[in-house]
Inverse folding.
């Protein structure tokens, strides 16, 4: 078997039916490894397992199948680009309030398969809260669906949840039904320059009982601040940790919340709450949404832990010049390793980070790693008992292991 | 000598299945269970078992052979392993308020009742989660959190009795799940004892973990994937402000048009519930709230948010009510009045006993803009079959609960109730909906599964079931119509689901 990605051929079926026939035949005849692709924005995680195979594209499955806007649900083909979806919803003054990176290219199916989320997950949740129905084709060509087109439904096993974040290893999504929301009129971000991560933590904790209702609380290491300053053209300090708070709502709600926040924070002895301004706030949200794509960095990780553990983890990152942002309300840290390090130090640093995350009761997964280290690093953290069960599930839908091999923790 | 009829999951290959051998198995089971949990945590005499012959779905009945009340996860592991060794099926049970026969011990066997595992293990406000045992009653968590500024959002009407384990298994909803989401949106992690007796933790206090979202898959699996022994739930901030309204309408049609108008206008209230004239009369009789007895229907609407914006939403809602023919829109003036309104709503099922000796609640869902259509159909169907129907339901979600009133002693009436129920549920499917929004498939609705799903859908679900429950010994014959594994025969839907009064 060849070892380069160039040997992959491509196929873009015109319909779910064709896709299903193709996979059925493949499973009985050639048994070629299949790599489902949407917008090709998140294939890095397969980078360490380059194999020959077929890229199976959903690019032709882009139709809007049903959009009863007054029911606030929409059913679309999985290959629909996020920008197109956004536009269609905006025409009805609605939105899917998840922040999806590369929205020009990313498809809704790919975003679901990778469980993409962004800053606003603190208030708006994740795909788990929006995907109410789906159709998919498994490795042997079975065209199956679960859920439906109504917002509440408990008939049958909830395979929607299983498909979210399964990275194309259980089936190829062909059609999805989402619950959508009325579009928020405006968004406004404010930031606080903190002298330490302890202060970040103190403010974030205070915000949990604030009279206001932030939709996002993001903390940045100084390295991340530098990136944000350059990308969003916002004048953050780049020596200290920064905590950013985002609100959404009517002008009246924004005004009231920011005023209230100021007085609540003043009680903690913090007087400077800087407003980003409405236009820049949207730009900033975009920058934060795209942050996980680190460009040429040697490795990008996501660490998940309880929110109270994040400050200490960020401190650990800062000491290592890691550019990291943290969803303070969710306990999620996304970081890029510095490219000043050689491959050996990078590998060592990743294993230190994994250990640190697990000491803090959390876990760490790699989103991307440079080829030079990809085979030497632990992509998924420490094995868990549940992985065996995941493997059994994978085998029950893909007994030959044809779909996206290398994209699961248990292989 | 105790007579037990334990059902073997797989055919016995030798001739041990003589009656004395069966007795031996039974005695062995009880003796070994006794070693694990002690005599006082076991029931096996027929007169004790009768209570467990059904849950809130009282039509299909089957007594389990043994009911056991473990107090710890390790006891459950031991019990499940014994069941496996002796090839006896088992079914988990919480409070037994299932309205779909989820706890029915089809084919007999062991019932593992979780009500003695009812502790709150941890409440962590900083990280916004609580860890609870499965037997904890839903409202006890609410009470423990009272005054903290946080709450556990899913609030089924049965919350005074049902357990968190049962809620997880059925993915329960409630009035406030309209805005805040159902059980699965609030469960972070689960520890369970697998059907083979292993302890497995999926998820936990952190929001994400590597690999598949097995927590999301487990929620709503109706007890067929193992026994849940610990649950990590997300805590939700209390709303900064709320307003509770009662919209009074001349007709059901006006009320349902209003619901469509509110949702269609992009307003998602915290809760939006409908009660029709029949149920209002029963509630007034029971609680003396002061409901207008001549109204065709009332809407119970709660809106929440920031104090500065909640008034504006109330104004919009009031206007939409008026535009759609509301006779008046009242506001709960005090917290007491609000609580009383909610008490009436949540105890509505209890009041139905005043209307009829027996009743059958259906749990259909339609797209919310189709509510006027389905309610017209319900009225038409009830008239055609000569069956009285009253309605109290989660209107904002499109989740209808038509309650068909009848007298169980009249088999011909039962037949008509069956026909009307099936027609209504089929109509929900035709309108693009589902046959259950929150009560589950259980044994009650198995026959609808092949209308909702294709053979391939069911095959995939069957494969998932085999992955999670390979021998099919954990709650056999639930949810899926076709044999996913041995012991999963199809149960015909032959009776209406009369419900226990909560
Ligand atoms: C008056 C009344 C009102 C109701 N209102 C609502 C409502 O508003 N919303 C709603 O969603 N439901 C409602 N229900 C239905 C019912 O209360 C819910 O389904 C509830 O979640 C069941 O909880 P339980 O503890 O009684 O579980 P049980 O009835 O004991 O069991 C239900 C299912 O869960 C399984 N199970 C129980 N415990 C475990 C465990 N630890 N591990 C694995 N599986 C387990 C059982 O095997 C069974 O399949 C109502 C019922 C009544 C009687």
């Amino acid at each position: 078997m060849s070892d380069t990605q160039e040997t992959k051929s491509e196929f873009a079926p015109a319909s779910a039916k064709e896709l299903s026939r193709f996979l059925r035949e493949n499973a009985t005849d050639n048994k070629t490894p299949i790599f489902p692709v949407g917008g090709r924005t998140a294939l890095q995680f397969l980078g360490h397992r380059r194999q020959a195979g077929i890229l199976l594209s959903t690019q032709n499955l882009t139709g809007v199948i049903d959009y009863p806007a007054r029911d606030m649900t929409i059913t679309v083909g999985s290959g629909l680009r996020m920008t197109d979806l956004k536009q269609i919803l905006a025409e009805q003054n609605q939105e899917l309030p998840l922040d999806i990176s590369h929205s020009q290219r990313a498809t809704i199916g790919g975003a679901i398969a990778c469980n993409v989320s962004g800053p606003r997950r603190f208030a708006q949740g994740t795909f788990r809260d929006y995907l109410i129905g789906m159709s998919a084709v498994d490795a042997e060509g079975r065209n199956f669906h679960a859920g439906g087109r109504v917002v509440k439904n408990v008939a049958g096993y909830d395979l929607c949840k299983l498909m979210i974040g399964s990275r194309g290893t259980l089936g190829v999504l062909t059609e999805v039904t989402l619950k959508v929301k009325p579009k928020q009129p405006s968004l406004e971000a404010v930031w606080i320059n903190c002298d330490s991560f302890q202060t970040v933590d103190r403010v974030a904790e205070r915000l949990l009982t604030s009279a206001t209702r932030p939709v996002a609380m993001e903390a940045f290491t100084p390295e991340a601040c530098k990136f944000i300053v350059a990308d969003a053209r916002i004048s953050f300090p780049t020596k200290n940790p920064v905590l950013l708070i985002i609100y959404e709502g009517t002008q009246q709600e924004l005004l009231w919340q920011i005023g209230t926040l100021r007085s609540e924070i003043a009680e903690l002895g913090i007087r400077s709450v800087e407003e980003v301004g409405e236009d820049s706030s949207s730009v900033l949200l975009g920058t934060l949404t795209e942050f996980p794509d680190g460009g040429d960095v040697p490795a990008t990780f996501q660490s998940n832990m309880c929110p109270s553990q994040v400050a200490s983890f960020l401190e650990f990152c800062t000491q290592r010049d890691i550019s990291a942002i943290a969803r303070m309300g969710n306990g999620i840290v996304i970081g890029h390793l510095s490219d000043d390090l050689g491959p050996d130090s990078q590998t060592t640093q990743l294993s230190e980070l994994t250990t640190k995350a697990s000491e803090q009761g959390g876990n760490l997964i790699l989103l991307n790693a440079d080829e030079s280290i990809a085979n030497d690093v632990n992509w998924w953290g420490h094995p868990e008992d549940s992985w065996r069960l995941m493997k059994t599930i994978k085998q029950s839908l893909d007994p030959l292991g044809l779909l996206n091999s290398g994209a699961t923790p248990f292989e | 000598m105790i007579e037990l009829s334990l059902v073997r999951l797989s055919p016995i290959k030798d001739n041990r299945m003589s009656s004395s051998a069966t007795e031996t198995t039974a005695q062995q089971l009880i003796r070994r269970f006794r070693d694990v949990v002690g005599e006082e945590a076991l029931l096996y005499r027929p007169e004790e078992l009768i209570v467990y012959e059904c849950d809130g779905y009282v039509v299909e009945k089957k007594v389990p052979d043994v009911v056991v009340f473990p107090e710890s996860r390790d006891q459950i592991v031991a019990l499940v392993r014994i069941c496996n060794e002796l090839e006896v099926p088992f079914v988990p049970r919480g409070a037994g308020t299932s309205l779909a026969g989820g706890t029915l011990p089809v084919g007999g066997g062991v019932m593992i009742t979780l009500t003695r595992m009812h502790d709150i293990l941890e409440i962590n406000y900083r990280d916004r989660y609580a860890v609870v045992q499965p037997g904890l009653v839903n409202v006890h968590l609410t009470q423990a959190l009272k005054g903290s500024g946080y709450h556990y959002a899913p609030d089924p009407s049965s919350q005074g009795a049902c357990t968190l384990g049962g809620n997880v298994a059925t993915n329960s909803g409630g009035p406030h799940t309209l805005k805040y989401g159902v059980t699965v949106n609030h469960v972070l992690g689960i520890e369970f004892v697998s059907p083979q007796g292993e302890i497995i933790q999926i998820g936990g206090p952190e929001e994400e973990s590597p690999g598949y979202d097995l927590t999301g898959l487990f929620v709503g699996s109706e007890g067929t994937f193992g026994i849940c022994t610990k649950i990590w739930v997300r805590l939700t901030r209390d709303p900064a402000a709320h307003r509770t309204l009662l919209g009074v309408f001349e007709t059901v049609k006006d009320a349902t048009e209003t619901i469509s108008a509110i949702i269609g206008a992009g307003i998602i209230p915290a809760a939006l519930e409908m009660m029709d004239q029949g149920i209002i009369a029963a509630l007034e009789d029971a609680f003396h709230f002061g409901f207008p007895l001549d109204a065709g229907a009332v809407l119970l609407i709660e809106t929440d948010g920031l104090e500065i914006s909640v008034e504006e939403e109330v104004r919009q809602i009031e206007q939409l009510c008026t535009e759609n023919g509301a006779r008046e829109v009242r506001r709960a003036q005090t917290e007491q009045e609000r609580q009383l309104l909610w008490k009436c709503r949540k105890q509505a099922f209890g009041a139905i006993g005043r209307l009829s000796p027996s009743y059958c609640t259906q749990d259909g869902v339609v797209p919310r803009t189709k509510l006027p259509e389905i309610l017209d159909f319900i009225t038409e169907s009830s008239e055609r079959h000569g069956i009285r129907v009253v309605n109290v339901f989660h209107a904002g979600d499109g989740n209808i609960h038509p309650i068909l009133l009848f007298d169980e002693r009249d088999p011909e009436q039962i037949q008509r109730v069956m026909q009307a129920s099936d027609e209504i549920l089929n109509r929900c499917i035709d309108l693009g909906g589902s046959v259950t929004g929150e009560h589950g498939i259980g044994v009650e609705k198995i026959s609808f599964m092949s209308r909702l799903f294709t053979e391939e859908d069911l095959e995939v679900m069957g494969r998932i079931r085999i992955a999670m429950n390979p021998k099919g010994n954990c709650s056999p014959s639930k949810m899926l119509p076709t044999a996913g594994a041995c012991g999963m025969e199809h149960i015909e839907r032959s009776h209406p689901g009369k419900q226990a009064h909560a």
